[in-house]
Amino acid sequence: MTESQKDFVQKRESIIIKGNVAAAYAAKSARVQVISAYPITPQTTVVEKISEFVDNGLMPGTEYIKMESEHSVFAAVIGASKAGTRTFTATSGQGIFYANEMIHWAAGARLPIVVAIASRGPAPPWNIWADFTDVISQRDTGWMSCFCSEHQEIYDEILMSYKVCEDHEILLPKFVSYGGFILSHTSKPVILEDQDLVDKFLPPLPSEEGWPHIWIDPKRPMMFGNLIMPSSFYYEFRLKIHDANIRAKEKIKKVAKEFEQTFGRNYGNGLIQEYKMDNAIVGVIIYGDLALQMEQAVDDLRDKGYKVGMVKLRHFRPFPTEDIIEVAKKVKVLGVIDRATAFGSQTGGPVSCEVKGALHETKGTATVLPVINGLGGREVTLEQQKNQLIKLVKYYETGEFPKDVIHGTLWDGLLEVE
Amino acid sequence: MSNNEKIIQISMHCRGGQTCITASQLLAEMAFEEGFKDTIAIPIIGAERRGAPIQAFTKVSKSKPIKTYDSVVNPDYIFMFDTSLLDIPKIKATIKEGVNLIINSPDPIDTTGLPNNIKIFIVDATGICIKREFMHSSGPILNIPMLGAFGKITGYYNLETMEKVIKKEFGESRLDKNMSVAKDAYESVREM
Predict the structure, then answer these.
(1) Among A24-33, A240-249, B40-49, B117-126, the least confident range
(2) Which of A42, A189, A289 is facing B69, going by the closest CB pair?
(3) Which end of chain A is more exposed for a tag (fewer CB within 10 A), N or C?
(4) What value of ipTM does the predicted structure carry?
(5) What's phi and psi for A32, nearest 5 deg?
(6) Hey, where are the domains in chain B?
(7) For the structural domain made of A272-411, what CATH number should be given?
């Protein structure tokens, strides 16, 4: 921490803010040292708000770098992170795709960068609304990846993410994503935590120490990212990225517990969050904003006597295989609801593919029914979600697929086309 | 905490530039300031332009957490920032039985085609803004008088709470002017 950064002040208060603003406040509370920014809808107000903080002197010592593209934005945070600083940026949809080369680089270089994603549908047709295909398409880059379902969770998850990413046994970058417009532009009450308490949970980085594997020091020059021969360690480095991802599961659980002890907010075990799964016969796995709304659907159907429950998937990478197997033992039918696509795969939905893969060797687990809904921001109402649950209950009772199943997956809420 | 407590749902219609997106946000803040436990402001974002129909929603709840992000289809209150919006059948159809309609109009409106058992409240928000010179680059800033009228009708918040929120959002510079239009609307809104 530099001298000037000691001036960070934030009192605990509850304010009504947009999801994007919650992400900006999280960057501020986390005492991020370098921000690089390029605007893209629906993320833009994240970096706008941060620029306002920096301009008003509320983030003393923080460098704010305006770039000319997302590719450069990621190159800039990679450079800054190599220098041992805490870095942040935010992007969406096409911006992620443009930065793809650098996204792979950040994970390969084992840099603990945290990036907020206001998810939007990939073009064409041009789309700026909620659809997690953008962030999920980064599946194999080595980045950790998680979803938020509420404004408070965006703020909280960014704080937790730095703690996981910067752990010297992990050292991986992470995406913290939330549905474009549905969370990014709606406003809800968010508790901003007292700076002293945040500092205790997530201490500011010691200055000029660097990460254990890389530091920039003119007295001790080192080469980085150079070409190595196939006989050298490239292959072993790849295994280490996977290994760190898998080991991050325990770390994520530990940090979620510590977060709850510090701030009093519970996020399940960090990887998943169960809701009314006890004695449920039919359950769903769901993520993002629709997970919160599904809680209401479960409440409403429970009031009517339906034995339904749900599991909020918080982390996509690392994928909580063991937890998913356990919840799949609790119910008879498990709907897996994607707001994203995996074209040409077994189910068409990325998370339902993962769940099927996780369960295939375990006997006594639920029958999985993949569901896709809400692509490109198509509105998914509470009524629609209640109907999804009822369709799953009927599937359990009759063993017959709902009428509108296409290639084994329920594509719910399609327009009626003649 | 009552599990059956009803979440109060508000739908706002305006034309681009008439400031109903900000109104939905301010309403959430005012209710929260007044002690409502949960609120959400939901703007419907597309390709906005001056004059095009715009919609925004606010949901407020005294104690029950609000878990939904979906559009309000059965509102308890509708804000109509512009009488010409009533000529659009799709918008007119959102006015259903039992609704409280708050409309910006100097005179009683033509109720042909509207359900019988609705309450209609009239406030001359445009007139108030012109009188108090409360304008932005392309017209009157209607959100503050509309919110003043809503506070009076519902009692969800008073002028004091409005002042706190407006001060927090916009600072001191135009606070007096904001409050003068809020007060005019608060005092002049009437049921038709």
Answers:
(1) B40-49
(2) A289
(3) C
(4) 0.94
(5) -60, 135
(6) 8-191
(7) 3.40.50.920
Contact assignment for A16 to B41 by CB distance below 8 Å: yes
What architecture (CATH level 2) is domain A3-263? 3-Layer(aba) Sandwich (3.40)
pTM: 0.96
| First-last CA distance in chain A | 63
Backbone CA torsion sign across A247, A249, A251, A254: negative
Residue A364, judged by CB atoms within 10 A of its CB (0-12, 13-18, 19+), counts as: exposed
Question: CB of A109 within 8 A of CB of A224?
Answer: yes
Residue ranges of chain A whose CB lies within 8 Å of a chain B CB: 14, 16, 42, 181-183, 185-189, 289, 292-293, 295-296, 299, 379-382
Count CB neighbours of A84 within 10 A.
19
Whole-number Å distance between alpha carbons of B149 and B182: 8
Peptide bond into A318 cis (omega under 30): yes
Whether A296 and B67 lie within 8 Å, measured CB to CB: yes
The dotted CATH code for B8-191 is 3.40.920.10
CB-CB contact of B16 with B48 (8 Å): yes
